[in-house]
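hi!! sorry for the late reply, been swamped w classes. u asked for the two structures so here they r. pasted raw, havent cleaned anything up. first the sequence of the first protein and right below it the tokens
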Amino acid sequence: MKRLRPMFKKLEGIFLKEIPAADVQEIRYMTEYQVNYYEKVVIERRWPLSIREALDCVDFVVLHERDPRCYEYWPRMAELCKRAMDFLKANTGIWEDPIYGRGYYEKEKTESRYEFKHRILRRHAESLGFVVV
């Protein structure tokens, strides 16, 4: 590895390119990006809404509804949950709102589904030039 270090130093200019400041957009929090994404999908219907997207939206709201750091997004998240649940009730056999207090197993199941979607959205934000803080 010590032998390769000088070679990497010489090639550093080729591999690393600087991104202009005009191309970099900042997101204050990943929650903000996710709320904006789900508003575009669920409320504005810019893309076709699927059952999977509606369930992901509900998982996002359920896991963040009690988080005090997300206080400023609560009204928007409540509207998202309402619209997503209306879509699910109309298109599936789901007829009741999700309850967070079903126990540790349900929390683990919801967190694992949410974590997968969170990774996808984080990569999507980074590919668009957002800097996730």
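now the second protein. again sequence first, tokens right under
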Amino acid sequence: MVLTEKDLDEILAYLDNSMKNLAKDALENLEIDGEFQGVEDFIQSQFDIRLENLLVAKKSSIHHLESGMKNKVIQRKQSILDNIQN
């Protein structure tokens, strides 16, 4: 299935909120090895897993996205990580 920009925007907005909440919980608990680096690695991993699960639910995959959409995903992931670092 071809994913529309609107669908991708909805997925990314959901991931924004989801990752912010996950990072908040992880940073409050700091039970992940390596302190902050462990949290960052965990968030990156969870972003990838959750993104793929959301895409599969839409009968798509990261591999099916156009290059412009993939770039948008990469930029959003980096933005989320930057916000967590701050």
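hope this helps!! also noticed smth abt the second:
The helical segments are 5-29, 35-57, 67-85.
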